[in-house]
Each structure stands twice: as C-alpha cells, then as structure tokens.
Description:
The complex is a heterodimer of chains A (398) and B (575).
Chain A: H1 2-14, E1 23-28, E2 32-34, H2 44-51, E3 56-60, H3 66-76, H4 79-83, E4 85-86, H5 91-97, E5 100-103, H6 108-117, E6 120-123, E7 127-132, H7 136-164, H8 169-182, H9 202-218, E8 228-232, E9 236-240, E10 253-257, H10 272-282, E11 286-290, H11 293-299, H12 312-315, E12 320-322, E13 325-328, H13 339-346, E14 352-355, E15 359-364, H14 369-394
Parallel strand pairs in A: 5-6, 13-14
Antiparallel strand pairs in A: 1-2, 1-3, 3-7, 4-5, 6-7, 8-9, 8-11, 9-10, 11-15, 12-13, 14-15
Chain B: E1 7-12, E2 17-22, H1 25-31, H2 34-42, E3 57-60, E4 75-80, E5 87-92, H3 96-102, E6 107-111, E7 118-123, E8 126-131, H4 140-144, E9 152-155, H5 158-161, E10 169-171, E11 175-177, H6 182-188, E12 191-197, H7 207-222, H8 225-228, H9 233-236, H10 241-247, H11 269-276, E13 279-281, E14 291-293, H12 303-309, H13 318-331, H14 335-349, H15 355-367, H16 371-376, H17 380-386, E15 395-396, E16 399-400, H18 410-418, H19 431-434, H20 450-467, H21 479-490, H22 496-516, H23 529-532, H24 548-562, H25 565-574
Parallel strand pairs in B: 1-6, 7-12
Antiparallel strand pairs in B: 1-2, 3-4, 3-6, 4-5, 7-8, 9-10, 9-12, 10-11, 13-14, 15-16
Amino acid sequence: MEKTVQKYLGKIEAQGLAHRDDVVLFARDADVYCNRTLREDERELHAVLETMNVSSLLFARPAEPYWTILEQIALRDETVPAEGRIVPRDAETRTFLHDIPVLEHFWAADIAAALSRRKTAIIRGRGIVTFGSMTPEQSYIMLSSTCFTAFVKYFSDALHRFREAVVDEEDLAAFRRIWRASKPFFPGGEILQFHTGTANDDDMVLAMIAEVGRAVVDHHLVDSFFGNISYATDDCIYISQTGSSLDELHGCIDKVPFDGTSSAGITASSELSAHKNIYRATGLNAILHGHPKFAVIMSMDCERKNCDRELCYKACPEQRSVHGIPIVSGEIGTGATALMHTAPEALRKDRGVIVYGHGVFTAGRNDFRQAFAELQRVERTCVAAYREEVEKASGGRI
Amino acid sequence: MSGYTFRSIHVDLSSRTIEAVSTSEQLREEYLGGRGFGVSLLSDFMSLSYDNPEMPIVFATGPLVGTASPTSGRMSVVSRSPLTGTIFDCSVGGRFGTMLKRAGYDYIRITGISERLVVLEIDGDAVTVRDAGSLAMKPVSAVAQEYSSDWSTAVIGPAGERQVRYASIIADGHYAAGRGGLGAVMGAKRLKAIAVRGDDPVQVADAGTLKSAGDAVMRLLRSSQAVFGEFGLSEFGTAALVDVIHARRMEPTENFRKTVFAGSGAYSGYAMKTRYRTQKTGCSGCPVLCKKIGAAREVIPEYETVSHFGALNSNSDLASIIEANRLCNDLGMDTITAAATIACSAELQGRTIPPDEMLQLLREIADRRSGRANELAEGSLRYAAAQGRPDLSMSVKGLELPAYDPRGAYGTALAYATSNRGGCHLRAYPISHEILRRPVSTDRFSFAGKARIIKIAEDLNAVVDSLTACKFVFFAVSLEEYAKVLSAVTGRHHDMQSLFRIGERIWNAERRMNRANGFSAADDDLPPRFFTDRGTSGGFVEIRPIDRTEFLHARANYYRIRGYAAELAESHCEQ
C-alpha cells in the first residue's frame, strides 16, 4: 500500500495538483496506511473513513492556480449558496462527476454525506476531498478531474463575467494571480525528439505510442493521465486501453483488427470507434486525443443567443471554430450523437479538431511528430484566443 | 413510498393455500428486494434440506422492476441449493419479474410439496394452482408454448423433475436461473411452472428525476467500450469475452489443466455473429440487449457456456456447442455445471469426450437415464468424490467454477473462495477490474488490496441483485447513479453508503446461514490444482500456480475486514 500511495503522491506533485505535504492519502486493505500523521484539524478524516465502504480516501489543499480557482468559484458561483454545489458544463463533469458538492465545514458527517452522493467534494477554504472505491488511483484521478473541471469552469465563467462587465478590482486581482500561476500549463513550441518514420513491427509501434504518451502527460495536454492514442497499420489499430495511464502504457495497448474479427478490443479506449472512423476518413495513421484545458474552455465559448445550451455538447447546429480550428459537438463513446460521427469528418480537412467541452483529436502520418505538434498548436492557439477575448472584454485591464 | 406493490403471495403447495400478504416495511427498508428479500425470507428455514416441505423457494422482484429505470427487468430466485447446500440466489432476466410486478406482487414465496405435478398461474388478482400431469417430463419449450405471448413463464424441464442437482429454471424460454440447482427445488415441490401476467403500472415517486437519473446512466453506458463499444456486450453478447480471456491466457481448458485453447476462435463473438447472423434481444426494460438470437431463432450461448462446452471439453465444433446450450435450456440444466461435470469425467477417464457423446450425455443426465448419467447428475464434486478423486472437481463449495482461470486473476481466485454460493464469478465480479479495467484497472497477478476490493464488490453486487438491476451495467455505472434512480423511484433518500450497508447486511445474513449449516474457512478454498500446477504461459504472459501463502494471507485479510472472527481463527489453525 505504501508503494502505491507514494506513487500517486508523486503523480500529484508532478502534475502540479498539490504539494505532497498538503495531501492526506489513505489506502487500506485489512490495515490502513496513510502517507503522514494527520494534523489536528484533519482528524475528522478518520471518522469519514470509518463510515465509508471504500478502499481509499484523499484530502488535498491544491496548489496554485487551483487553490485560488476553488476560492473564486465558491465565492462567485450562484449555485454554491443556493444548492451547495457547482455544475460545470464540460464533458468530464457531465458524464462522470455530474456535479460537485461544495461544503462549508470540515466536518466528518458533512464530508461523508457528500461523498456518499458524489465522488468528490470541495470544502471551502480547505481543499478537495475524494475517495477510491477500489484503489488509491481512483482518488488521484478524482482529485485531478476536480482540479481540471474547476479550472475550465473558472476561466469559462471569468470570460463571461468580463463580457457582462461584472468584474470588480478584487476579481481582477484574482484573475491575474490565477493567470500567472497557470502559465506553467501553457504549451511551449519545443520540438520533441520523437521516433521518426513508419513503424514496421509490433515492438516499434508500442514503443512509439509509449513515448508520445509520456510526452502528452508531461506537457499537461491531458486531464490527469487520460486521453487516448492509436497507430494504424494496414490491417489493425494499436490503441491505448480504456482507463490506461498515458505515461505508463507498457502492457496497456490493444491490437485491434480493422475487420472486426477479434473482440479482444473490448478493453480498448472508449474512443476506439472514433479513431477507426478517423483513419477511414483521412488515410492518416497516428492519432492523439488529449484534454488541453484552453481548448476545452474555448470550445464552450459561444455568444450565440436563443440556443438551448443543454444541446450544445451533442447537437450544435453551427459550424464553429477557434482561429480556424474546427469545433464539433459529440458525446463520449457511441450513440447517434457521439463524437465518432463528427470528429472524423472535421479531420478530413484539418489535422486537429476540438470536441465541445471535451478535448482535442489530432492526426498525422507515419509517426506522432505531426499529431503532437498539432496538439500543442491547438492549445497554444486557444490560450492566445482566450487571452484576446479577455483583453477585449475587459477593455485591456488584465 | 413507491416502487413496490406492497403486496406479495405465499403459496403452500401441500395444502394448496394461497395467501396475499403485505410486503413488510422492514423487508423493504432492510433488504430492498430481489436477492435481499429471498435471503430474509429464508432465514428461519435454512437448516432444512432443499426438499423439505417447509423449505421456501422465493421469486422476488426489486423496487426498480417495472419502472423506466435502465435494466430494471430482472428478478431473483432464492432457496437452498441442492448442489452446494448453501443459500443460493439466481438473478434472472427476461420479463418474468416485470410481469410479476405488474400483476401486483413484489414476491412469491412457495412452500410445501404438491401431491401431483402442478403449475402456479398468476393472472393479476387470480392466483391458482392447477394440475399439470400432462406436462410431466415435457421440455421447457413445450411448456412455454402452452401460454400465449401475454404470459411470462418460469419452467423446469425433465432435469428439474428428476432433481438433477444442477437443474435450472428457465424464464421466457431462454433466460436461466441457471446455477445451483434451484430447478430441483421446484422439482421436489412438483411445481412444473409458474405463469404470470399483469398490466398494472408500477408507481414512481418522481418521474422527472427518474428521467434525468436514467439519462446519466445512459451517458455512462454509451461511454463504455465493454457495454456499447463495437466489441461490447451489446454487439456480441457475453461471448465478446472469448477473445480477451483467450488473449489473457486464462481460458479454462481440459478441466482447468491448461489455460489456452487454440480452437476458441470457432466460437468467438465474431464467429457466432457472422455464422448465425445474430440479432439483439434482451430483458424487459434493458437498453443493452446483450442476448443474441440467430436468424433461424437459434439461442446464442453466453460466454461461460461456449467456453465450457468448448475449451473445457476441447471442443471447437460450434454447432455442437449451440446444440448443447439448446439442450440444457430445454431440459432445464445449468450449462456451466453440466459442461464442467462432463469435463471432470473426461479427465477421470483420461480421454476427451467427443461432441456427439457430450450431447447424448446431456440428454441422459437430465433423465438420470443410466448409472453413469445418474452419477453425473449429482454434479462434479459428488461424482469425482465417488470416484475417489474429489480434487478433480473444479469447484468451490461444490459449485463448478466458471470460465475464468483463477491463476490468471487473483482477485477472481479470492472471490471464488469467499463466495457465499460457491465457485461463482458474479458475487464480486472481479473480471470487471482485473480484465475489463472498470471502474479502474487492478493488477490481476497481485493480491494487494484485493481483500477489501472483493468485500466492497460483494456488498455492491448484493445491492445490484436486490434492486434488481443488471450487473453488466455496473461495468460503466456505480451506486452513485443508481442511488439517484432508486430515490426517484421510491421517493426515499438513498445514497451510495446507505445502499452499501444494505448489501453488507444481505451478505452477512447469507454467511450466517451457511455457517449454521456447517460451512467454515475450509470451504472458502480453491481446488488444489491451482496451487500446484502451472497454466499455459506464452506471449510474454506467465501463468504460474497461485502462491498458497499469499492466497491464505489475502483470505485472512478478507476475514479481518469482514469481522469474521470464527473464520479467521479457523484460517490460522489451517496455516
């Protein structure tokens, strides 16, 4: 248990989610392991763990910019005082989290009640508390997802507030602080030394996928370690498995025949069908799917009036784009309104497409250089576009 | 409170009395429905033999049945198993549960032994016991044909009447209460069938919230490769698992002597879909439709069935596997135990049983026609023990293991051992995380953390079986979403942890009953082969024997987590 806990503490730090000392991570089988002695004001967590049928419990005071983001959301979001929760609109929340309770007190009964209802909760002025029903990894994922979705929500709401001119000096100062602290997440333009050229055997394909997987995580182009990667040969697709860590893909890549003769791909990424359709539509053979934050934020930035906002994520009738990068609607997985129908069409013309509230697909030929560079370019473009929009809306005050 | 009819039926076949009773508040609050109802209703009778007149058999629906909740068409059948001697429940699909609920009943509890073969007919308020001598030894299909399509039926075949210890109950032609021999309990009562119909709507507390909660479930299902993906259950049925279990080298072959079968491609999901041009069908209220029917109305077998009539018996003849499945359904026998018992006898005889002989054996077993068939009708453990080799029965507590070799997944190994109904993959369903990576992937070759994971999953599945929902859905969703569904249906607040407490209560009640019948830590164990013999390694995957010390340590951890002091003490003695 100790080894597992230390592994995820390392990931939490590496992702900039929280400092190790600001995290309490319990993992238990018959015995309970915790990474450190609890402070006086954290002891309620023992009672939470006692009342819950779970394997892991995590409490973290997130690092910047997440700390200030959570404070700002708790202060500004009107659903917090009214309903004690926030309801972000991104695909992660819509599909997996549903909503996130916001608690006023660090009380065991309140925390246990919130975590009996949802997988994660925000405690005002304290941080984020989550659990893993089976493993500590789930706690880490939920922490990361909460930070991701809060980040997206904050910047989306901030842009709206600038446009509505309801931003005071305090808001502005907070925004500047958050923007500065977010800069380490902005993608650079560095050219990485990937394997080049067409892969000609299994081992080479697996090595190429593992290499780019680590790069995508290291460059903050995914939420926690999620996303998916594939490479196509003449007769099959090699694709990361569902729920796999893109920075640890050894043994977690499925080989799926194009002709469907094997169902071993039942463990493949939930976006397998989208990848297949992209290959069919484009003739390319390397795909990356990540969740860069500002691409997600900009995909949801739409000023069109008189729309049913509940339909945007799955059935937007508009042709939208960010500086020429197409934005499409589409749900995760399968179904009539799934992105497997929309993203491939967009990639016929472009090398990158943003899926509303969800993430980015990029594609390239022979190796992953083009797809990775495009993923970085999309996010850089979206950061710049966001900045332009905020500058415009704020009258140049930021 | 909604979601229940608040009314149930008690039937005594000895006196032919039928009594409508209220579904007690305590039962609803503490045991939820389905499996939980059955466990509670059997608690005072569990020391009795399965064929004692006082022994009940319970057919119970859950609060979601008959509502718009996703996958709400199931029910549970619960009694004492003739095969294992444990308390035993089966979750059954089809539409029997829905019909029973719409007829106005939460559950049926049947006791007594009829003098003659009878059927129980429930037509709304009209509940009758009717003589059925003309149906004696009739196959399931013939009995089902006696009723028009507005009825739902639960029928036993000749195997049930002959009290084959693994006789099944078949609902609506091919949805089986397959395992554990509950068909023999009906047979002992001389109850050939139950037929039910009804059309009363089931009341729901908050239809709007139920709709949004159902939408959340559907979003998750559509995001799941295992459920709605192009290789998922909706496309191929459970036979979708053939290829992945083969690839993981944990495919029980030749009575678990090997773990890879070269011929499994003959009966993969793809092979069956293309050869039989399958169509989707499924349980009432289910969006997944994992049941597959061929263009010529062939019933396509489940994964366990194809693998055990296939790899376990070294058989790659798909037509014979389809026929074996049809025969088992029609004769009313559990496919897993039937195939495993034949594989066990093959090993004892030092040969492979060819497909034609296998099919003939099935017919003979159902009828207990010959001396050998009569022995095989007792299940593999009694059969192998009679031959002086109980170690060759690949079973736990007398229930034959399904088609996942425990040497390839250690959580599965532990779950087989601790299961309250014997060697079963469905109590904790560790295949979900050890193979299908849901809700999170775990290291299949490690016991680390598995004791608690298994405990939590056992509690979870006790809830699922009591709702009564479908386990496959829980590859994608969790109790978080279903607590909201349940709250919308009943109007009472439920959350994950309140449901877990119900699940734990049900599990512990089962465990208490088994202990009262003499089960101990010694029964929470695997056949010795798994601790001594290697599986079939290759392709960078090594299938080693399970380290017994690690297994016992994990089991002791499980007992500590459960608070089972007696089993822990027994375990220490064993070590």
